[in-house]
Each structure stands twice: as C-alpha cells, then as structure tokens.
Amino acid sequence: MPPKRQRDQAAPKSTSPTGKAEVAANVGDDRRAQAGRYLTTSQGVRLNDTDHSLKAGPRGPTLLEDFHLREKITHFDHERIPERVVHARGAAAHGTFRAYGNAESVTKAGFLAKGRETPVFTRFSTVLGSRGSADTVRDVRGFAVKFYTEEGNFDLVGNNMPVFFIQDGIKFPDVIHAGKPQPDREIPQAQSAHDTFWDFVSLHTEATHHVIWAMSDRGIPRSYRTMEGFGVHTFRLVNAAGETSLVKFHWKPVAGVHSLVWEEAQIAAGADPDFHRRDMADGIEAGAPLEFELGLQVLPDSEDETFEGIDLLDPTKLVPEELAEVVLVGKLTLDRNPTDYFAETEQVAFHTGHLVPGIEITNDPLMQARMFSYLDTQLTRLGGPNFAQLPINCPHAAVNDNLRDGMHQTAIHQGMAPYKPNTVDDDQPELATEAEGAYVHLPREVSGPKVRANPVSFDDHFSQATLFWRSMSQVEQAHIVEAYTFELSKLFEKPIRERVLGVLANVDAELCARVAAGLGLPAPEGDPARGVVPSPALSQVTTEVGPVAGRVVGVVAGPGADLAGIGRLRKAVEAKGAVLHVVAQVGGELTKGRAKETVERTFLATRSIEYDAVVVAAGTVANDPRLVVLLQEVFRHCKALGAWGDGAAVLEAAGIDTSAPGVVLGDSVAKPFTADLLTALGRHRAWDRAVPAGTA
Ligand code: HDE
Fold it and tell me: Which one of 248, 365, 402, 508 counts the least CB within 10 Å of its CB?
C-alpha cells in the first residue's frame, strides 16, 4: 500500500470522453498540471502507446516523425536546471505568519499589523554543497522566508548566523570560490575543511567573527526547527508617520536552539544524508509544525548609523541582545509540506529586493550587492525573465506590471499599450499614490567622493569574535576548539595553519593555545581585545526544559519485551508531539498476549543519530554488538538514555554508567518514569556527561 501522503492526493478528475471538460479545466485561472484522465502529449493530444518508438518495421530504424518520442526525450534532456551557485541544497515548507501587532509603531508594513495572517513559504539550505550533498555538514544554513503579503511579496533572505564572512559584496565570488571544492579535483564536497577556504579567511580577517560561528555548534544544527534565523543586515523601517528606525531581524525557534555533536553530523552524512529534510517533513506530517517567532531589535536611526559604538552597516557585527532587546512581533508556523519538490522548493526565487512599503534597506555594502545578484542569477537558473509567474513565486497581491513577452511567458495579456502614459488603453494600469500603498523610497541624502573604500570602523575584525568565544559555555568552547583543530588538520599547507593560529591569537590566547596544542604547533602571541563583556544570549546551552515536539524516541525491544509498557510510553511521548520507534534485531512484529508492536527500525538499518533518546524495554535480552554501539553512541553524544525493569541490565552490559546524568531508570512505564524521560528529552543533552576536549 502506498504511504498515506500519496494515497490522500487527489486523483485527476475524470472527464467526459469528448474531452470537453478537460478543455475547460485548462483555460484561464483554472490552469493546472495533470488535468484529465488520459496520458497526452504536451499539446494535449491523447496517446495510445508510450513504450514503443515509431519504427520502420519492428526491426527497422526509428522515424524522425515520432513527435512523441522526440518530445519525451527532449523534455527529459532538460529536466535538470542549473542548481543555485550557493545554497543549492535545500528543503522547504509552507505555512502562515501571524502578526502580534506590536511592530505597528515602527513599520507600516501591512503584514505586521495586529492579527494579520500571511501565507509564507520558507526554504532552509546549506551554502557550499551541491544539490545532492549531505544535510548535516558543517556550514552556514540559509533561512529564506517568502511572505505573500497583501501589498506584494516580501522576502526575508537570512541565515542561521547573525553575521557574514565579508563586509563588501564585491568579495562574494572570492569567498565562495575559496569555500567550494578545489578546482583541480573538485574535492572536498560541502566542506570548509580545505586549504583554499582557510587561505581566504586568514587573509581576509574580517571573516574571523563569522568563522568562529561556523566552527561553533551553530554550524551543525540538530534540525531546522531548532535553528535561530537572522536577517544579518540592518534594515530601515518606516512607520505610518514617516518616522524611521534601524532594525535587525531575528527568528527565535519555539523548540529552542539546539545542535548535533560533530560525530553525529559525520555519521548522519553517511547514514542519512537527508537527515534535516526528512526530520522537517516527517515532523510536519506527524502534526508537529515548525514554529519561530519573528523578533526585532529596534535601534535609533542616528546620523552615523552606529549603536553603542557598533557600526550598523558592518555585516560582520551583531548587536548583543543585552544591549538591545529582541522584541517578538509575530509567529511563523510551517505546517504543510510541498508536494512537488521541483516546482516549489527548487523553483522558488528569493530576492532581497522583494520589499514592501515600510521596509527599506540600508547602505550596508554587502546588502547593496545582493540587490543586484538575486534577479540576475535567477534569469539563467529559471530560464528567462518570467519566473515570477511560476505558482510558487507568484504574488498573492494583484500583479499588473507592463512587463511582456520573454521566455516562458505564461500570461495571456490584454490591451494594446504596455507603457505609461498611454491614451490607447485609457492610461491603464494607473500609478498608485503612497496613501494607496505605493512603495515610495524614503528621500535620503547621498553624497561623498567616488571611492573604493570602507569606513575606518570596518577595520575592527576581532573584538566580536572575542565576544562570541567568551560568551560560550565550557562545553561549547570545547566543541569550537575541536572544530578548528579538525578543519585545520585537514590542510596540506602548514603556513596556512600557522596564519590561522595568528588570527586566533588576536581572538583569545586560550583558544589559540588549545587549537595549537591539537595541531602540535606553537601558539603565537596576539593582541586580543580587552574588556569585552560577554553576551549570555549567544550561548545555546540552557538548563531550561524545552518542548519535545518533533523529537524521536527509540525503544529497544527483544522478543519477550513488555509491549504493554511500550504502548503506554508511546501514548505519553505522542501526547507531547514526539514520535516513538520500536527498534529490534530483526523486522516484523513483536507479540505478547494480546499486545502487538511493529518493529520500525532494525539494528542493521539504524544509527544513533535517528534518536533524541533511546530506552530499553523490560524483558529485552540482547547482546548484539550493533546495539552496544548504538547505546554507547547515545551515551557519548549526551542524549537521554533509559530503561525500565530488567532492561537496565542491557544498558549495563553495554558499559553504560546508569547513574550518570540523563540516564533514566524505572520499574515500569508509569508517571515518574515517563515524566523524567520527557524532562531529559526536553533538556536536549546531559552536557555534564561530556568528555572534555582532548581527553576523549
Ligand atoms: Fe545570498 N545568494 N548572497 N546571502 N543567499 C543566493 O540567489 C549573494 C548573502 C542567502 O533558498 C543566490 O537564487 C551575494 C547573505 C540565502 O533560494 C545568489 C551575496 C545572506 C540564499 C546569492 C550574498 C544570504 C541565497 C544563489 C553577497 C544572509 C538561498 C541562488 C553580496 C543574510 C535562498 C539564488 C533560497 C542565495 C548572492 C550574501 C542568504 C547567487 C552576491 C549575507 C538564504 O543570488
């Protein structure tokens, strides 16, 4: 039987044999794919055979006149379009944004008005890898949201890190050339752990702050639902009275900010390269939508565009939340999976220039270059200038644009005069006034000499990297040291390694010394910024118990396992929006009395990365070495572990210290046991179990 989502899809409506109804279904607004019941050519001509080419006799040559064969092969030849030059690997979901209304004082953007609900499409991505690369590589994640607002589309094309590698867009081709696989052998795929990347970032030290984010846990998120998002640049918001403020956009995940550990990320890249996209799609299908709150840091629109000494036009700088509170202004809920990856996720086209009245950009030189790049790249990626007509890109607001013709024109326009003004079409369409919702750029003074230069304030490349390092918890610092050491140990060129250590010496002496020790190199002296005040908000380690919706619990069960207990645990877990999988030595069904459980994962086909917690059911006797590996990995990765009844013996046989933090034991599946397990799951990790870096 096909999976549920396929069964539920509407079958094409059947039509009368005369084909009349099919003609109607293909005209005007009702145009849709897969109309009608018969297989046809792209011209709508019905086919009686799609398996045999037209030949001069069964053994003869194929005839050029076989229009069906030629159309079928030609279309196939062009099924792949160029992948995105960056952010090629992505996954997306539909949803809704609901505004709380408290942003009305700073922006007139209609979608932020109280109670307004706006349909959205959000695409998450990695940056460096090709379209077929693994989800869990160490990289930045794209977080692009298209709001189909009543005033036209607004795209917030952000990342999961609040800063960027470079300060000026003119360097973007360079940093990407350096990060992409090396040109001679095209390796490594989707990795920054190679010479050219580290060569670039150690020569362009403005990258230092961004690189430490990428080397931190932020570079390997647990899932899309546990990532923060950032607009990165400073935007200028305009309210109804024409007053302006400078603003940083944030997305705060309701599920908390959580990451994988590096070993998990590496295992997942082999065992389940689709780890993040699967997690998102499965979670949505299981009824656990992804939820994020939109936050604004509202800063005064000052003459020098700085705040507390931080240059707001420098995209390598963040504004600590302790200095400017993030005010939550609405909620994004992603609750519907795309049904056609290509038509939706692949063809969606985001652009920083998709702005609505009330939101303007600033002179940040990185943002300025982006304003050119997106439309330009999409012209070739989507094959011409009409991609805004694709359903996924099409605004929900009325479009009347006087743009005509071009490749893939699907609109059938009316009228004679696609120009303004005109007398032939009665001067239609009309121009709107600001009061009627026109986007009117705020008049702003622009002056200065024509130069290729940066403001002097852009010269500070290290102080916020120091801020980030000093704001991390011990375990996060250990991960950062490991990440630098891992990446740098992959380099062939010792001088590059040494130059990176020189950079780290200007961030923090201890960080530099620990990485240098791992590489077996001397730690150089540097001049790190003094008096840096840490920002606790930058650390993602928390003692709070977060929501567990979308999390996965694996229950290890043998033939004699307590199936009634598994049933009770499933109920408790599902009540919180999480999922339970039964894991056993072989597939099939387990039965005990009247209780029955289907085995969803076998030791051969599962790895620890699939679970946020693993529990051993009472009555399970197992001494399979693959189970030992599974349990030890879960323990080593500091995830919740548990057992009830004599299941504890299986943990002990695997060498697990059952008195360690995050290990939950119980006599049976009753309230205290399930409550403790869900608490351990909500804590994400028992970091106290972490082995300090360098001693593993
Ligand atoms: Fe992009 N970026 N970018 N970028 N970017 C693209 O557009 C570019 C930058 C971001 O899911 C491309 O349609 C330049 C910052 C995301 O479809 C391209 C510069 C941030 C996505 C492009 C930047 C981003 C893109 C490739 C420096 C975070 C994926 C395909 C001036 C704030 C969107 C495409 C999706 C995609 C150019 C810098 C985020 C080539 C020139 C900073 C999330 O146009």
Answer: 402
- CB neighbour class for 47 (10 Å; exposed up to 12, middle 13-18, buried from 19): exposed
Q: Which of 153, 159, 337, 393 is catalytic?
A: 159
ipTM: 0.98
Is residue 350 within 6 Å of ligand 1 at its C-beta? Answer: yes
Residues 138 and 44 placed together within one structural domain of the fold = no
d(CA 67, CA 592): 61
Instruction: Indicate whether 328 belongs to any domain.
Output: yes
497 close to 520: Cβ distance less than 8 angstroms: no
What confidence score (pLDDT) does residue 45 get?
86
In this prediction, residue 264 carries a pLDDT of 97
By 3-state DSSP, what share of the chain in percent is helix, strand and coil, each rounded to 5?
30, 15, 50
Q: Phi and psi for 265 in degrees, rounded to 5?
A: -60, -40
| Within a domain: 415 | no
Could you tell me if 516 and 470 lie in one domain? yes
Catalytic residue from among 68, 87, 461, 684: 87
Q: Are residues 41 and 103 in the same domain?
A: no
Same domain, 105 and 165: yes
**Whether residue 283 is found in the same domain as residue 353:** yes
Percent of the chain with pLDDT over 90: 88
Query: Is residue 4 pLDDT above 80, yes or no?
Result: no
Ligand 1 binding pocket includes 172 (Cβ within 6 Å): yes
CA of 93 to the centre of ligand 1 (A): 19
Question: SS3 string of 631-667?
Answer: HHHHHHCCCEEEEEHHHHHHHHHCCCCCCCCCEEEEC
Query: Helix, strand, or coil here: 505?
Result: helix
pLDDT of residue 32: 61
Which residues carry a binding-site annotation for heme?
Answer: 84, 123, 172, 370, 374, 381
Q: Are 478 and 568 contained in the same domain? A: no
Where does a domain end: 332, 360, 389? 389
Residue 18, domain extent: 1-50+67-79
H helices present in 193-256, as ranges = 195-203, 208-215
Burial 460-494 (b: 16+ CB within 10 A, else e): bbbbbbbbbbbbbeebbbbbbbbbbbebbeebeee
Ligand 1 and 229: CB distance under 6 A: no
Looking up residue 505, the CATH number of its domain turns out to be 1.20.1370.20
What pLDDT does residue 690 have?
82
Residues 502 and 631 reside in one and the same domain:
no
242 has a pLDDT exceeding 70: yes
What is the signed CA dihedral for 355, 359, 365, 370, rounded to 10 degrees? -20
CATH of the domain at 359: 2.40.180.10
pLDDT per residue over 435-462, tens digit each?
999 999 999 999 999 999 999 999 999 9
260 ligand 1 Cβ < 6 A:
no
Q: How confident is the model at residue 35 (pLDDT cuts 50, 70, 90)?
A: confident
Shared domain for 200 and 254, answered yes or no, is: yes
Q: What is the pTM of this model?
A: 0.93
